[in-house]
Each structure stands twice: as C-alpha cells, then as structure tokens.
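dumping this here before i forget
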Amino acid sequence: MSFMITKSVLGTGRAILMRHASTKATAASAPVKEKWDIYAGVLVERLPVITKTMAPIEAKFKSMLDQIEFENSLKSNHEVRKEVEKRQAELLKAGKIDLDSETLKQTAQDLEDAYNDEFSKFKPAPRITEADKKNDVKSLSRKLEETLVLLTEQKLGDKSYFLLPQGKYSPSESLRQTAERALKENVGDGLKVTFYGNAPVGFYKYKYPSTTRQEAVGAKVFFFRCTLNPGSQNVTDKKVKFQWLDQSELEKTLKEPYYHSVAQFLV
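structure:
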C-alpha cells in the first residue's frame, strides 16, 4: 500500500514538472510582437483628357462600322431637301413650274457649301503639346491620352525618393482623414481632388534601416485613390519637388518592390 502511494505521488510530481517545462518552452518560443508605424498614402490621378489614338486595326474596324451605319441609315432632312430642290430645279429649267425667287434664296447646296467652308477653317488642338516636346514632367498638359500619377520627393532615412504622397496615421483621425491631411502636407491646398471611398485600394510595408530604428521596426502604408478635379490648378508650392508620370515612367522611377505593390491598383 505504501509502495503504491509513493508511486502515485512520484507520477503526479513528474507530470507537474513536465507541464511546467512545457509552459516555459512555449513562453520561450513565443515570438515578440513587432511594432509598426501606420501610414496613409495617396494615389492622385489626372485622368486622360482626350481619347487614345486608334491602332490601325481599330481605325479599320471603325471605318467598316461607319460604312455599315451609313448604308443602313435613313436620309437626313438635309439630304431630302437637296433631292427636292434638285427636282424643282429640273422642272424649273424645263419650264414646267414657276417658283418665287424668295423660295430658292438659300438652297440646301448653299448651306452645305457654307458648312464646308466653315469646317475648312477649323483647326483641332494638337495632340502633342509643348509640355510633351519639352518633356516637362511637372506639367498637367502632357500625355493627354494617358493617366498621370502624382509623385512627390520624400526623405526616407538618409536618402530621398519619389513616392506617392504619404503621411503618418494619427489615432485621432481615420485613415481616410490621414490620407487627406498627408496630401495637403505634401503639396498644399492647390490640388482639388475627389476620393473614391473610405477603403484603401492597396498596401505596402517596409522595414526601417537597423541604424535608425527606435520603437517601430518599419512602416505599413495603406493607399487611397483619388482623381484630380476638372479645372484644378497644379502644385504651386515651388519648394515641393513633384512629377506627373504615366505607368511606363512610374516603372522606371519607383523602386522595387514598391512599384510592384503600386502596380496592383493602377488602372
């Protein structure tokens, strides 16, 4: 009986020691939670101003559709009037009818000649602007066929990079409000934009250099999309270094893997 009690006590003690050792091992293996700074970034788009130049196959297909529509369409009032006036002129020449001179004071042909004369004087605005010729990356008048994205120069550590405007999150505001504030802090109040919504469209994170880390190991950036309002002025602050770039230029300017993250939500 004494032997059985001793064995039971020893078994219980061994179990307690094993559980204690397991708890210590679990506590030792649990990773330390890293702290990250939260940022809101802003994708500002200047949407295309004119339609894209059609590729040869697109132009050929459009021409075919226009011809089909022309063949299947009804005659316009102008075309009907021209035919009526042509028949009247033939009858008048044959002496079968007598028309008042006021009736034919301005014929459909006269109107058509006037329209063609006015059209010949019309000169469309050039698709290639002066900003394109000078490659002025600060101008909103360049690459009118493309969507342009705003980049501003920002300092990360000891180096400066062109990035999407961004600002650090404050607990007193929402991420959307942080994005709005960050845009104003980066480029001022001149740009008038419309945000698409309250939800981020993209995400990127990076670690700070080990020599500059303090409390946080890095930053997590949540991107919001907005579009430049029609008639909005450009960035006017001369101290701000900025660029308006299309997607091919963004790929050359932004560093990897930052560009890879941004490219996921570019249209």
